[in-house]
Write a structure and sequence with these properties.
- It comes from Microcella frigidaquae.
- The protein has 345 residues and is α/β, with parallel strands linked by helices.
- The protein has a single domain, classed as Rossmann fold (3-Layer(aba) Sandwich), CATH 3.40.50.720.
- It is built from 13 helices and 11 strands.
- Helix 3 links the parallel strand 4 and strand 5.
- The longest helix is centred in the middle third of the chain and has 13 residues.
- The protein is globular.
């Protein structure tokens, strides 16, 4: 029987990857979105499109009812779980995207609450789905995602799979962290500083991995929470090597200890520079969905690199990707004069 899938918020990076995966598997796909973003050319004419305001619960219920698979990419608060409570028995499988940042550190803090290295959350390696999550009744991305998860799991009989991705990468990303390396290759930089000696690991997640898990959850409905991450988790050095290999760029990595340039220096600081490893276990996905890694970070990063270079073209990367420029501190990544002074060039 041909799977009938609805992707809510499906014009973003996760929805696009899921649509491609589902189409390849022979599913019938409807992409629901506000209508402000055109789908890629390879999807137009192959998927149905529906205009949807996610904040309208009646519209969501009407559209979702009767689907074999519903993927919700844009549920963020416990209120966003409410429309599905009345659809028990009318959905084959619901998949909702959460985040690995819901995990509570053993020191009692979480990623949104951390202000620096000292209070950054500490986690076991790897983190399993049984690890405690944030349950603080406060605003913020991680606490609200945690509350969303609990609200979904509180609905009796709802066949929901909750996925917790890490640092997502893939075509259509609004904040491609790999720009730290891409721009250096484009600028012809031959020495690249990395703090923490390049050993930092902040679990990455290819959109292709999420898409694979979405399809498997649609084929095998259940009530479960699963990590969704590249396996194995790459180090910052391995990420840089993967980017340069794809671009055919050769460079020497200067593996610096943390704080090598002084307390005010940004030399070597990159978007995976966390003081402790953040690595998610994929054992539950293997057990629940017979998941097998579709490839390493190195084998899946290429389309994201090509997409970002094409998206920027001859423009200013700060204007094209404002979230990257401001949210991740990317304005401090490319102080080449300070790098040359520290590295002796």
């Amino acid at each position: 029987m041909r799977m009938n899938a609805l992707l809510v918020g499906g014009s973003g990076q996760i929805g696009i990857a899921a649509a491609r995966d589902l189409l390849q598997a022979g599913a019938s796909v409807t992409v629901a979105h506000r209508g402000g973003r055109a789908l890629p050319a390879d999807l137009r004419g192959h998927v149905a499109e529906a205009t949807l305001d996610r904040a309208d619960p009646d519209a969501l219920r009407t559209l979702a009812r009767g689907h074999d698979l519903v993927l919700d990419c844009i549920a963020f608060t416990p209120a966003d779980a409410e429309p599905y409570a009345s659809l028990v028995g009318e959905l084959g499988s619901l998949v909702v995207i959460s985040t690995a940042s819901v995990y509570l550190g053993t020191n009692g803090t979480w990623m949104d609450a951390a202000t620096g290295e000292d209070d950054f959350p500490r986690f076991p390696v790897p983190i399993t789905e049984e690890h405690p999550t944030v349950d603080a009744d406060v605003d913020g991305y991680s606490p609200q995602k945690g509350a969303l998860e609990r609200a979904l799991l509180a609905v009796d009989g709802l066949p929901v799979t909750i996925l917790r991705p890490g640092a997502i990468h893939g075509p259509g990303s609004p904040a491609l962290r790999e720009w730290y390396f891409i721009k250096r290759a484009l600028d012809g930089r031959r020495r690249v500083p990395l703090t923490d000696r390049g050993e930092s690991r902040f679990g990455t997640t290819a959109t292709a991995v999420i898409a694979d898990l979405v399809r498997r959850a649609g084929e095998h409905p259940g009530r479960r929470v699963l990590n969704a991450a590249d396996d194995p988790a790459p180090t910052a050095l391995e990420i840089g090597q993967a980017v340069f290999a794809h671009l055919g760029h050769e460079a020497e990595f200067d593996l610096l200890p943390r704080g090598a340039g002084g307390p005010e220096s940004t030399v070597g600081q990159h978007p995976w520079a966390v003081p402790v490893p953040v690595v998610m276990s994929m054992e539950a996905a293997r057990r629940e969905l017979d998941y097998a890694p579709i490839g390493s970070h190195r084998s899946t990063i290429g389309p994201a690199i090509d997409d970002m270079i094409a998206a920027i073209g001859d423009g200013d990367w700060r204007e094209r990707f404002p979230a990257l420029a401001h949210r991740y501190g990317a304005d401090g990544w490319f102080d080449y004069d300070a790098e040359d002074a520290l590295l002796g060039d």
